[in-house]
């Protein structure tokens, strides 16, 4: 008889995806990473032309590591797990921020 006590608690961690694991054109101006189970904003340093970043419906808990994407004009982070709005000072060109 098989042990059926596996509640699937580890499954969420296994399915989380890292931005680093994705193949992204460093010249892109728009990046859509919706529904990717991304837990952390990171590895955006090479994206010097990025103007629009969509990270809706992910597992992000903190707004962080955005200081290098100063070209960013639009940032969508709604339907994540963010509880504190912080670390946006470097985004001097930001016009649209959606955290709803």
Automatic annotation (TrEMBL):
Keyword Thylakoid: no
Keywords: Leucine-rich repeat, Repeat
SUPFAM superfamilies attached to this UniProt entry: L domain-like (SSF52058)
Organism field: Homalodisca liturata
Protein name: Protein phosphatase 1 regulatory subunit 7
Lineage: superkingdom: Eukaryota
Pfam families cross-referenced by the UniProt entry: LRR_4
């Amino acid at each position: 008889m098989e042990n059926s006590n596996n509640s699937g608690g580890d499954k969420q961690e296994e399915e989380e995806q890292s931005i680093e694991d994705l193949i992204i054109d460093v010249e892109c101006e728009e990046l859509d990473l919706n529904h990717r189970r991304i837990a952390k904003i990171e590895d955006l340093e090479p994206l010097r032309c990025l103007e629009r970043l969509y990270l809706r419906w992910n597992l992000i808990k903190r707004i962080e590591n955005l200081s290098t994407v100063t070209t960013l004009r639009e940032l969508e982070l709604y339907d994540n797990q963010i509880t504190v709005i912080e670390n946006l000072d470097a985004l001097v060109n930001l016009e649209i921020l959606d955290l709803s």
